[in-house]
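Form 7-S
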Amino acid sequence: MNFEQKKAILDKIKEYDRILLFRHLRIDGDCVGSTKGLKALIKATWPEKEVYIIDNEESSYLSFMGPDDEEIPDEMYAEALGIVLDTGNTKRISNQKFTLCKELVKIDHHIPLDNYGDHAWVEEERSSTCEMVVNFYDTFKDELVMTREAAQYLYTGMVTDSGRFRFRSVSGDTMRYAGLLLDQDIDTDVLYANLYLEHYGYLKFKAEMYKRMKITENGVAYLYISKTLREKHDISLEAASAAISLLDSIRGCLCWMAFIETGDEEESIRVRLRSRFVHINQLAEQYRGGGHACASGATVYNRREVRALLKQADALVKEYKETHEGWL
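Output:
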């Protein structure tokens, strides 16, 4: 079945002279890598095609991947093929002008929340959308051209969305596709330096976070990062959100969360949810979010909702521990 879906997408790419690539809000390495990687593949194969990525969201963490394209007139969307990557529902698409495209394709590895698109290829078991793009190339490698540039983008997304190949979603295919990209002589030294070297100020911020972390009765680790605290350390919302990784190795904690005050007009609180074994995506959906079974996001608006979310997560972990063994 997936071959027919991929073949239909390839045929659409061949058919259109103009292709617009879209991704989700709150960008990450996978959505940036998959859009930039697919663009590089298309341009290397069909240099005459117009391919644009229009996204106004910036990220200091991912700035090394380079800028996107300048805004184009609305009329240019009308005869274009739109391809949305790494986005489970239409509300999370960062450029809402995707609706202006003549036809729409969805390529994604999230649990579907919207069945959108004229053509959709979704594989929830894949570690990343970048892995899917490499699979797409490998399926049609007699017709597509892989370049070092495309490989660098795609490898970046695979590394970041798989937790450096540590997550359960990593398969033999994941590693084989990583090897295919490494064969393109990509620069992993520069890549890992950009991804993981940290400023001294951020290390001081992390030290304070370790002091502030808390654990619920049954094993939900969490941090609350206020706007005042971010300003004290001169930490961006994006950098503060990355603090979720500080909680991922606590023995006995099967779920961990970071609550980050955004400082926006709505006074929203961004929630990053992660888990081991316990599925938390349905819980995230109750709080204006969603995502993967063990990696999701949500939004709350006050401390009462923070407490309610923590209470429900604690109950999930308690139930899991009472009914399962081998959870460490």
